[in-house]
Queue: 3 jobs
Job 1
Amino acid sequence: MTDSLFISVVVPCYNGENFLKACIDSLKNQTYGPSEIIIVDDGSTDGSPDLVTPPARLISTKGRTGAGAARNLGAKSAKGDKPFFLYFPLTSPHKPCLPAERFVGKSKRGLYGDFLMQTDWVVGEVLKALDDAKVADNTLLIFTSDNGGMMNHGGQDAWRAGHHINGDLLGFKFGIWEGGHRVPMIVRWPGKVPADTTSDQLISQIDMLGTFAAVTGQKRKPADGPDSVDMLPALTGTPAAPLRESLVLVSYRGVAIRKGEWMYIPNRSNSGWDNKVG
């Protein structure tokens, strides 16, 4: 299956060349390396041409939407007869907060709000690319985040303007409270995932490996993500019992254990940065 799979990985170029080099080296050393590595330089750092060697290539989005190539990326991946896998990480809700000019001031919630509005637009461009390629009805699409919203200066400005980043959840990125790690997960797979449904299953992003293996019919070896649970039954139906009983959560300075409806937090603080709205 992997030999016939077109794998495209997008790497945002915002944490400097050392971070970028580490990402590229790690990807190239994978047993099933990507067909291409797309480095998106949004202008916040200088991407070194020395790092951009096959299968990596550089796309500059400086002065555009911050992800103006989104539709092109989706369209390129979806072309041809091969099944494709596109991993497309966006900067938000992290930093740097760099909304394109067309979105600045549009959210009325500061630059952070503008950046999230841009994110919504980018997702729409990916969906359009799938529609244009006529593969939307046969594509599993997952939208999620690796952590809760960040209470940096941009996040605090958004909060004061009325945008409560993590809703009613306590805490923010880096912390062990729910606001730091309980995130949205939206799944679309026409004909497989029922529309307008929700699931109360306990799911972690480490379960992606097991779930994708099930989707593609791969048999995992014992060492292939032994802690990754196949969540496909939760996506396509309503299992009577929990697929995952417990989960270990690690924050910036602490650890917690979730089991059923309970969560054990040994520390009395959020175990993260002491971000306060001030």
Note: The longest strand covers residues 6-12.
Job 2
Amino acid sequence: MKKYKVIILSLFLLIVIYYQLSQLTVATIKYFPLDTEAEFSDVSTTLNLIDQDNQIPKLQWKIQSQHQQDSYLDQNVGLLYENGRLIGIQSKWSQSNDPLSQMTELNAEPDSLYQAISYHYLELHQPSQSITSNYQMTTDQLYVIKQDPLQFFHYPKSLKDQTIASNIDDKINQDLNKNWSDLINHYQIDQDSYYAIPFIDLYRFQDEPLPGLNLDDSKRVIAQIWEGLYKNYILPASQQQTQNEIMPLILLAKDGDHLLILFYDHKGDPEQLMQKINMSE
């Protein structure tokens, strides 16, 4: 009887592990020509503080999406940063056309800024056998402040909160700028030839073009950025038990020829991705 119990338990664990890995390691984020008619009816990324009365409060991180058109594949990919460093990845995909929802909770550290960005992706197989895609990005942020009782806010409103947020931002920017400068120097990049865009700020260009590009080219380039990051940054990081990588920096060439994405991998080794832009006429 003991032998059978061990076998059943082992099979159960294998099924759980397979499901978890399949949700993280299937490389489904791929750029196809954009179909602007394939719209999402609801997308969101939310950060909230729960269990505030406990000694260790929890940060609740939710990602949701819903669409009405039939699609071949839906996927949500989300990244969470604490003070500019990666601490969490969520990825979920489906072929059922049902709403996608995922949620996780992490310990919240005081005097920290949490920033989350999500990529909601649709892949559509047309009757003509062509493949198209569409996407939307969502984001949220939360400041957690060490006070008694613990305080938190998404965006500072009062002068006191603005001062606290500014102090936290300054520390984060100091850390990020040092690491980004090290990467730029390592690859001998002429920074004056590029527009610098922190990865979390990519969301700002959802409805307005990247510098030097028109809106159509900008949407295509952003989709290709996510494709490259998913394969070379998100998937490798998701296979590690812990993450602490700094946020990637996107460098967009001012002549519109290409862009670079700089980051450190989970081993601390520098990485550079290059992407040709190929602007439309």
Note: The chain has a mean pLDDT of 89.
Job 3
Amino acid sequence: MTWPMARRSRWRTTVRVLAVLALLTPLVLPLVLLVLGALDTPGQSPPQTARDLLPDEPGRAGLDAALAMTPLWRQLANTALVTAVAVPVTVLLASSAGFAIGAGRGRSARWLLWLTVLLALVPPVCLWVPRVVLLRWLGLGGETLTVTFTALAATSPLLVLLYALAYRRVPVSTLDAARSESLGPVATWWRVAMPQVPGATFAVAALAFAAHWGNVMEPTLLLTDPERKTAALGVRTLAGLEPTLYPVFLSAALVVTIPPLLVFLLAQRRIFALTTSEER
């Protein structure tokens, strides 16, 4: 490698590193502040300067106070139950609907595509009250799993569109071969098409996990018993504490943030590896 080429390669590497750091800074900095605030001692005034951000006596006093004020571990278990049910249901329904759009042909597939786009444009706030009225009319209000109701609609139409775009990349010859083997639509979707879009599956699963783990509005409207509430709602109840108790709120927020952060780190590596293998 000649000197100009080596210099150009180092310059490109430096630019990439700086670009990655510029993208990560807005994401990492809030996490650092969250950890520092959670380790501070309750009862002190909020930080006024950058030097005040470092806790004088770091500890878990804030977490202990949060556990005394709200059943956080129970609420974390409720949230884990919600995501364990909602994520698989979302993946199955979004994948099947996306297959009907992405692998379909003719006018029906186009109508389904436009209908999904129109549903994606509907503000979620317009559906909150009708959803609550329907669930209470069915006698399902107050139960923890009622907050997974949106999973029956694939959580979000955008997840259906994501699958539809992925299925568009499946070769038509592969689907035709499945039909020639007398496979029906369900068998073609499950045995042929879905295994070819693992990147989309992991992406939809990660997005559904984040949506249901951090869901606050449905639990607020449907759940009243603290033992049945989710962790996100439990953290929100601590947001009204006086300013000197900010470590209590941040400690609970840190505990609730760790699981989706781990899922994101694992999922993005898996998605990147699967996407790279698909392109090859």
Note: Residues 174 and 180 are 10 Å apart (CA to CA).
